[in-house]
Design brief:
Radius of gyration: 15 Å
CATH architecture: 3-Layer(aba) Sandwich
CATH topology: Rossmann fold
Strand order of the largest sheet: 3-2-1-4-5-7-6
Order of helices and strands: HHEHEHEHEHEHEE
Bound molecules: S-adenosylmethionine
Shape: globular
Number of domains: 1
CATH class: Alpha Beta
Length: about 190
């Protein structure tokens, strides 16, 4: 999928996409470096979009590990499946992660990588999705989520940061990737 197609999808499906460009390679490198992927047996990605993080996750995980991605937008599901055949891309909301882990006989995953637009979710959506992440991760597992710098001006962006600190331990914030549109950083948290 080209950047022009992403822009069209972002503008026409704005209720779920909430972005006008896919993330930069620099942000993808950073978020996947922080996700403790090297020794993970099972990894979940939330909202892969066109697969920019997905591609890096495939590079940094062991062959034979389980890798599931949850994406609600049908065109992005197709784009990520084409780009990353080793990843199992499910067209479903990330709130249903538990159901899919159960179906595979997995109690937990080791790492969750989020490409979701947290600052534009409602209070309830944030809670439901964060509960799903917490429930899917093993104790000691890693959760990484990117956030746009301008999102911190929004109440929901600050709510998300507060909720991360309330639910997880060792919450850290990375440096800002300025060469991303808009500039963004990564939260890293441990269950
Ligand atoms: C901001 S875009 C980011 C896409 C990609 N990760 C990137 O960084 O370029 C957010 C993505 O999350 C997806 N999304 C939104 N709500 C979702 C949900 N509840 N479950 C799974 N995916 C969701 C959207 O369809 C979109 O592809």
């Amino acid at each position: 999928m080209t950047w022009q197609e992403f822009l069209v999808e972002g503008l026409t499906s704005h209720t779920e996409v909430r972005a006008v460009a896919s993330s930069s390679q620099e942000l993808a490198e950073l978020i996947t470096d922080l996700a403790s992927l090297g020794d993970a047996n099972a990894v979940i990605e939330l909202g892969p979009g066109t697969g920019v993080f997905t591609e890096k996750i495939v590079e940094k995980t062991r062959v034979g590990s389980t890798f599931l991605a949850f994406e609600v937008n049908a065109r992005f599901v197709a784009a990520t499946r084409r780009r990353c055949p080793r990843c199992t891309v499910l067209q479903d909301s990330a709130v249903h992660a538990r159901k899919h882990l159960d179906a595979l006989g997995l109690q937990h995953c080791d790492s969750v990588v989020s490409g979701l637009p947290w600052a534009s979710f409602s209070d309830n959506e944030q809670d439901d999705l964060l509960d799903a992440v917490f429930d899917a991760l093993r104790p000691g597992g890693t959760f990484v989520a990117f956030a746009y710098v301008p999102g911190l001006l929004l109440q929901r962006g600050r709510d998300f940061r507060r909720k991360l600190h309330a639910r997880f331990s060792d919450v850290e914030q990375s440096h800002v990737v300025w060469r991303n549109m808009p500039p963004a950083f990564v939260y890293r948290a441990v269950r």
